[in-house]
Amino acid sequence: MAAVAAPHAIEVRGLRKSYWVREGGLLRGRRRRIEALRGVSFTVGWGEVYGLLGPNGAGKTTTVKIIATLLEPDEGDALVAGYSSVREPLEVRERIGVMLSVERGFFWKLTARENLKYFGLLYGLDGRELEERIEELLELTGLKRLGAENRRFEDMSLGMRARLGLARALLRDPPVLILDEPTLGLDPPSARMVRSILRKLASRGKAVLLTTHNMFEAEIVCDRVGIISRGRVIAEGSPGELKARVSDRVPVVLHVRASPTEAEALAQRIGGAVSRLTERDGGLLYVRVLADPESAERIIQRAIEEALRLGVRVAEARIEEPTLEDVFIALTGASEEGGGGG
Ligand SMILES: Nc1ncnc2c1ncn2[C@@H]1O[C@H](COP(=O)(O)OP(=O)(O)OP(=O)(O)O)[C@@H](O)[C@H]1O
Ligand SMILES: [Mg+2]
Fold first, then answer.
1. Per residue in 170-188, pLDDT tens?
2. Least confident stretch, 153-162, 208-217, 245-254
3. Residue identifier of the C-alpha nearest atom 25 of ligand 1
4. Helix, coil or strand: residue 177
């Protein structure tokens, strides 16, 4: 699609949105106001994949719903290709492809192909053009390769449904794509396929806005990332720029053969600032400490000494590159739970 004169594909300006929720029982319940968005602003350029990264309840879905004209903000506006989501929703809708939660709005008894045909007709496509577009999208999303094009929606796997959701969002070949957690719950091949399609679309000049709480995904697929926490974008930049912000803290990682209690004890003795402790295959535990670059090697040394004392075997110890997750933790002081929007 040519004729995209607006300087930004998406321009979000000072979005605010509150919800009223009832707390407590039906009779004694009190109404409480939740400020879901407290002034969200960012822009997405043409040819760019922009990721809104944030924990549960941060305001990601609320933001994309407003941009996609599905929800009105209390304040602020979102421009898509120069059109206002608040004042010109029809203009906006013509220019966006939207993929919210995967299962929305498909006909369970219709096949993948029939569903696409239905939505194509609804969008004003028909005849040869529609048939060709559907074939193209069944190909692109791998539904054909999976032999799923004639499968009923109700019999499709989550991965197939996600691919179909993406195909539907692309039916009109929109210049702007908006996706809320497009890879949530997908297996690695499906997630990889979705990500590679998003990269391909951006390379053709389209703008892609996606939300995720998956740091790994944000790192590999996004040109720029906005970190959203409690209704505000608290940091923005390319993954590299954001990681450079925490270069004063490098992760020291130890793989140890130990019980969780022993590993905890070890972690505590080497400084306490453990960000993660997860089970690994083969009974290995993963202890991660953030250190300033000068003391990183000393921490490894000390960890090995302390491990000896505790009778814990260290299988591997190394200094790693910071990840977006480290940025996130450094900025919000919270891991991926948190949020709550209050
Ligand atoms: N319809 C609603 N009614 C009341 N509160 C809502 C509603 N939708 C969202 N909220 C609240 O607004 C805040 C932001 O929610 P939102 O769904 O935008 O977050 P999110 O970043 O998409 O989270 P998640 O990662 O869980 O999808 C949360 O506190 C949520 O509980
Ligand atoms: Mg959400």
1. 999 999 999 999 999 899 9
2. 245-254
3. 56
4. strand
To test ligand 1's pocket by mutation, which of 34, 64, 179, 337 has the most ligand atoms within 8 angstroms of CB? 34
Classify residue 152 as left (phi > 0), alpha (psi -120 to 50) or beta: beta
Q: How far is the CA of 2 from the centre of ligand 1 (A)?
A: 35
> What residues does each domain of the chain span?
10-95+174-244, 250-321
Element (H, E) at 235: strand 232-237
Report the CATH architecture of 10-95+174-244: 3-Layer(aba) Sandwich (3.40)
Question: How many whole angstroms separate alpha carbon 47 and alpha carbon 206?
Answer: 5
pLDDT of res. 33 = 92
DSSP string, 193-228: HHHHHHHHHHHTT-EEEEEES-HHHHHHH-SEEEEE
Span from the CA of 153 to the centroid of ligand 1 (angstroms): 28
CA of 164 to the centre of ligand 2 (A): 20
* Cβ–Cβ under 8 Å, residues 55 and 338: yes
CB atoms within 10 A of CB 309: 11
Domain 250-321 adopts which CATH fold? Alpha-Beta Plaits (3.30.70)
Q: How far is the CA of 68 from the centre of ligand 2 (A)?
A: 14
pTM: 0.86
